[in-house]
Amino acid sequence: MAEILDSTLREGEQTPLVNLMVDEKIEIARRLDQVGVEMIEAGDPSVSPNVFQAVKRIANLGLKAEIVAHSLATRSGIAKARECNADRVVVFYPTSKIHLDAKMNKNQDEAIAWIVEHVRYARELGLKVRYTPEDATRTDFEFLVRVCNAAIEAGADRISFADTLGIMTPSRMYEQVKELRARLAPCRIDLHCHDDYGLALANALEGIRAGADCIHTTVNGMGERTGIPDLSETILAMRNLMGIDQYQLHPLMDLSAYVEKVTGFFVAPNKPITGVNAFSHKSGVHTNGVLKDPHTYENFDPSLLGRERHIVIDKYTGKRAVEARLAEFNVTVTPDELTLIVEEIKKIGDERKFLHDADIIDVAERVTGQMLDIFPKEINAIVMIAVESHVYTTSVVRRLKNLKQVSSVYELTGDYDITAYVKVPTTLDLNNFIEELRAMPGVKNTDTRVVLKKYAETVKA
Ligand code: HCA
Ligand code: CU
To answer: What count of other Cβ atoms lies within 10 Å of the Cβ of residue 301?
Structure first.
């Protein structure tokens, strides 16, 4: 059974400019647990007091996932992992010649002795141990096998085949994991693939096919330099391309948005699975296909992730897409009119950067020579309310909350005391609502703003 270890809280926090607060880490850990990842790498407790706190609190949350603490091969680092109550410690120590020479100043035999000593120490403290040969993929293969077998003999039950610089290709990954599997004593093999050439996920999937057990991910693919495989991409690729279907998909979008919010690290529009364009269709050929059968250009139904497909209208657009967009406004046109409308849209699209729905309706009105009455399905408004000075604001809030048109209420500082978010079917209803409000005891005056465009909340509570 393949597994996922998510390292958003450790590798992910190694992203430039990213710094997570303890409570944010706890929230991320809870959401990762809802997704169902088998392991959460919560941090290296030696990094700072708050990283220590975060690991400790996460380890004590009672999550289903195994909680892993990362550590250099030092006694104090390993002891801190124990103090945090982590289930497992990662003892990491490099094995490539350049790292041993330039960083550690140790020869291969000295390195093995050091690693064995520290794996043993972690076992003595009652911790499960993963040994990570840092820079494994640039390590002399014979030495790598030797050092890993020594670590396994000392008590490690997991080895991370770390492609620290992201230099692997899928075929080499397959070959080397096959060979490791054959030559290592019984253990589980993790794949930690960096994305320096954009091959991280491809490499990891090939490693799994060759017999490795676990892929390391981060939310939104964060990490040192160009990061490691993105959690959502990994889960969807495992599910749809390899038949490994063991994770919850519905928390993924909100998790990605939450991590964007608290890290300030935003994903590119063309990012697979979670990027805004992942389910958008633009050219006439594509939109025509999708409107007839979404499977023509969609690998899976976006609703699996709680997402919607989007049809872009501009100069690339064909008739089917325009017809469908007009139908959303309850507008039907003849085939000849449709041809003319599409021609017009292409003309505008050649000259302007963006086309809005209002432009499409405009064109349709001009072509058909009719006034098209487009009624929005619902009117949303923000109503600001000033309360008489002798009245408790809270008493007005209480009344407002009972009105069915009001979806949320805030007490504010400033010229107005209260803001209510209001949803009504028509402008007439809005008018009636405001009259009702003005008559309410304690209300001094109101100021109403109709919402023209609303953006989806990026993060749900
Ligand atoms: C690093 C360490 C590491 C460790 C990977 C692992 C790497 O260099 O920061 O423990 O599996 O990429 O080698 O992230
Ligand atoms: Cu790494």
So the answer is: 12
Alpha carbon nearest to ligand 1 atom 12, residue: 164
The identity of residue 241, as a single letter, is L
* pLDDT tens digits, 236-291: 999 999 999 999 999 999 999 999 999 999 999 999 999 999 999 999 999 999 99
Q: What is the DSSP string of 345-365?
A: HHHHHHH-S---HHHHHHHHH
Count of CB atoms situated within 10 Å of the CB of 78: 27
Residues paired with residue 91 on neighbouring β-strands, in sequence order: 71, 131
Q: What is the pTM of this model?
A: 0.84
Which residues partner with 424 through β-bridges?
Answer: 379
Ligand 1 atom, smallest distance to 216 CA: 11
Distance of CA 413 to the CA centre of its chain: 35
152-162, pLDDT tens digit by residue? 999 999 999 99
Tell me the DSSP string of 269-282.
TT-TTTSGGGGEE-
CB-ligand 1 contact for 160 (6 Å cutoff): yes
Question: Mapping DSSP to helix (H, G, I), strand (E, B) and coil, where does residue 37 land?
Answer: coil
CB 173, CB 209: distance < 8 Å: no
Spell out a b/e string for 181-209, using b for 16 or more CB atoms within 10 Å of the CB, else e.
eeebeebebbbbbbbbeebbbbbbbbbbe
| CA of residue 258 to ligand 1 center, whole Å | 24
